[in-house]
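Researcher: Here's the sequence for the chain we discussed earlier.
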Amino acid sequence: MQKTTKKLVLSTVIALMSVSPIYASSMELTYDGKTHQYNLPPITLYINGEEKKTEIMPPVQIDERVLVPAREVFEPLGAAVEWKSYERKIYVSYKDSLMILEPDNDEVWLDGKNVQLDVPAKIINDKIMVPLRFIGENIGLEVKWVGGDERAVYVSESSTKPDGGNNPEPLPETKPEVTPEPEPTPDPVPEEKPESKPTPILPAIGNKLENAVDGIKQFYEGDSTGLVVDKAAASYNMTTIDRATVLGGRNDATCMIEASTPISDFEVSRSEGKLIIDIKNSKNQLGSTVQVASNSYVKQIRTSQFAADKTRVVLDLTSGAEALVSLSDDRTDIIIQLSKEEIPALAVGEDLKGEYLGIQGFAPSQMTIEENASQLIVTLPNTSLVEDVEWNRVRGNYIDSVYATESGNNVKITINLQDDVKFTHTTEIVKENTIIRFSKPLFEFIEYTGEYRPSFEITMPTSFSISDITVDDRYREKKLVIDLGDNYSSQFSEGKWTIRDSAVSTLTVENRTTTRFIIEEQTIRAVNLSKKDDKLVIELVKPKEKYGKILVLDAGHGGTDGGSSGNGVVEKTVNLTQTLAIMNYIQANSDIKIYMTREEDTYPGLRDRTNMANEIEADMFVSVHNNSHTATSKGTEVLYYPSTTDGRSKQMAQIALDHIIAECGTYNRGVKSRPDLVVLNTSKMPAILLEGAFISNPTEAALLASSSFNQTYARAVGNAIIEMFNTISFR
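Model: Thanks. This is the structure I predict for it:
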């Protein structure tokens, strides 16, 4: 079977969720259906000798193996990584090697054979994590672990650091190979021009439509050659790729890739709506994205240094495109001539997933699909047919007939559906072919009512208990996750419902171990769950409609903003420690609803903090800080915004100060008006800012480093806030 180059894209709900990087020695990891407390020290990752901080998840060590997010680690080394959601498999392609992994499956497909893993890929905290050593070494990379206090892992195309001790992943002793610098090769003066001839690049047998799907009922085959390459290899010095352009014609387009000196060789392939040109013995001088002039074939050009001596140029196609790729006479230009493409094959049929229409060699990005009550119309720009297609009696549960004909410069495929059938369609790519599937509506059992009193009524398949359902309110992300506590995939199809009214952006249904409804909010909402006959009712209300007392707690600074530091204390850290302790104390001793601006080492902008509080319509805002000035400065002060019409902030400041002085014994520096502070002057509710003690004072810094002091401080502030709600009117 001919190998094809795979340019792969990670495209799953798991990757679409917006998260911040987590680097901590203690965190919760959810995998294998359970939540685990992870207490190992952080692992530092180096790629080609440079430290790499992964965005979606840090490296973690499970069962003596290091797991990492696949795409962030392997793509910088020239590998291509894709999560194929319809297969639930991870594809890793590097040079001539292809590996296919499946989460929680210890059997891996590697270059045509099955290999056993001791620790499989896993979905951890909804992120795809893969075993670093196994993948790296099996696709030809070098992986080294340094244990002890360093705890670092080095991944490279060649050795970057010797192995250390305390190794949780046993490593063989290897001697670095020393490769002598090659002597420059002079440009050859061939006796005659290298002979080239046009060569069709055909899809692998297994990628052809008739071999990619089962249950075909009707089949059309064209006479298409979508890609022809006209070249001859030769040997020249390393060149640079300096320019890429597209010139659009009336019914065609020409792309030029320009090099500084003659090009030795290149390879061309097609994959999922992309034309991929790998230029050997070259260095890339272009940006990662090249915008192109208006044309009917190419949306944009993307480039990368795919390997040390190979430039990759990718043409993102917007339509069908037959490509003739050749070299200019002086071999300094690769010329790509694009013209109308004949459709290679069409099919309708039914397999275990249901009824489908298949289109060979095209990606969804190269077509438009219109749906109405009784038809689906697929338009493929810049395409043609050998002859019209007329399939009059398909007789499926959904598909009645199919007609395909040329319309101007396009092909239009009309799929007529059975009368009065309710349907939805989805698209997937199977071995380079687009498969359009028909099934029952995704949200047949879900009703959404109104943006002014937004609620979902969900028809459940069996008797259920509200107590089995959990709500994860990720309010800082404006996201609600409703977990039904069991798997209801027989009732609810996976998919995303775009609503986009003033309350709800989207509803996503996920079927994993349990079925989950993920609601993306336009504004932060609270949830009321109730049962009405066989229906689960999810009502989204304003927080103040559900909670009688609402507090926003703000841990000052965070992330890149460390605040003050001294005497072994960093302000952002002690602020967070105290704020979490205050939250825990209040939750244990009152019915006050608390929202936190941060619960980790992150940095919300100053306006983001109060914007969140204003959106929630909180009753009060309390920001937790600590002070710094001189080594003799000491004591507690509470800051407030001076209002001429509302004295509640000053009253809150005095109550807080009194409790802290009485319970903690710190020096009383008084309450102070600070109209200049952003978190005080942009809050629409009464707000105060606590300055608990001085980090610059060695004695008070020792208190701030003390767990017992911070617990006492949290109790004092918590009791003060409880008194504020009991003695001050906020509504």
